[in-house]
Design brief:
CATH topology of the largest domain: TIM Barrel
Oligomer: single chain
Structural class: alpha/beta
CATH architecture of the largest domain: Alpha-Beta Barrel
Strand content: 15-25%
CATH class of the largest domain: Alpha Beta
Order of helices and strands: EHEHEEHHHHEHEHEHEH
Helix content: 40-55%
Number of strands: 8
Radius of gyration: 18 Å
Length: about 280
């Protein structure tokens, strides 16, 4: 089984990269991708653990991008982490998360929430890319909510009064940057309407023109129509179809391997990459 979308403590997951690989082995996965938000910080730890646990590792990241005014997450696989233009954009995205999160904390404080910036930082592993889940963890630690799901459903969803935007590179530009860095860009959960505005057929066509290689079809936030539409667009544009768990550990209900990618799709991704190769378990 192949799961190509997971998160560790290097961004907003609750398991260390090495622990993710151990869990993947226990779950019977043959291949795992670690795709932390806008960072490659977990790659080295994950690579060592992959060899120890016998699980192949596809190194990647989930990039924060924006297309025609809407948030789009882009999975980037097997790119060269030393590629300067892509690394610089990822740095800008990570760094802008800090003032964004500070603004959200200030707004919540103004409304009487007993949350502090120090309390948020206490939830963050050293070197991790900050995100709203860390604020959610601080609210849970303060006894204001029971878990991350409650926090996001009530206060931190994209339509919330507390939502604040952060820097995001244009999606088509991000696709081109990933390709130039030898990587493989795959649009993540493009029809997950509960978390974002869905992309249209013309949007996907524009990203294909920029160099998009794949589309994540099998995802728990896609309904049957969304999955079917993703496969229809994949057939139209000869895109690689992927499936994944979007696992965050205790941060979400998602289970490792609940949606998977076929070996044939993985072969196409590896063949299209020239940045780094998978780490064999």
């Amino acid at each position: 089984m192949i799961d190509l979308h997971t998160h560790s403590t290097r961004s907003d997951g609750t398991d260390a990269p090495a622990d993710l690989l151990a869990q993947a082995a226990q779950a019977g996965l043959t291949t795992l991708a670690i795709t932390d938000h806008d960072t490659t910080a977990g790659w080295d730890e994950a690579a060592e653990a992959a060899q120890r646990h016998g699980v192949a590792l596809v190194r990647g990241a989930e990039l924060s991008t924006r297309h025609r005014g809407r948030s789009v997450h882009l999975l980037a696989y097997l790119f060269d982490p030393a590629d300067t233009p892509l690394a610089e954009e990822m740095r800008r995205m990570r760094e802008d998360r800090v003032p964004r999160l500070q603004r959200i904390v200030e707004h919540m404080q103004d409304d009487g929430f007993a949350v502090t910036w120090e309390g948020v930082l206490a939830q963050v592993q050293e070197g991790a890319a900050l995100g709203r889940p860390h604020l959610a963890d601080a609210l849970v630690a303060a006894g204001i909510a029971t878990d991350r799901n409650e926090v996001f459903n009530r206060w931190l969803h994209n339509g919330s009064a507390y939502y604040e935007p952060h820097y995001a590179v244009d999606t088509a530009e991000a696709v081109a940057l990933v390709r130039a860095a030898g990587g493989v860009p795959v649009v993540a959960h493009p029809f997950a309407t509960k978390r974002q505005r869905a992309l249209g057929a013309d949007d996907v066509a524009a990203l294909v023109e920029a160099g998009l290689v794949g589309i994540e079809a099998e995802h728990r936030d896609h309904d049957d129509d969304g999955r079917a539409f993703a496969r229809q667009l994949a057939a139209r544009h000869d895109l690689v179809v992927t499936g994944s768990s979007d696992f965050h550990g205790d941060g979400k209900d998602n289970r490792l391997g609940e949606n998977t990618t076929t070996p044939e799709s993985l072969e196409r991704i590896v063949a299209a990459a020239s940045g780094v190769t998978p780490v064999l378990g």
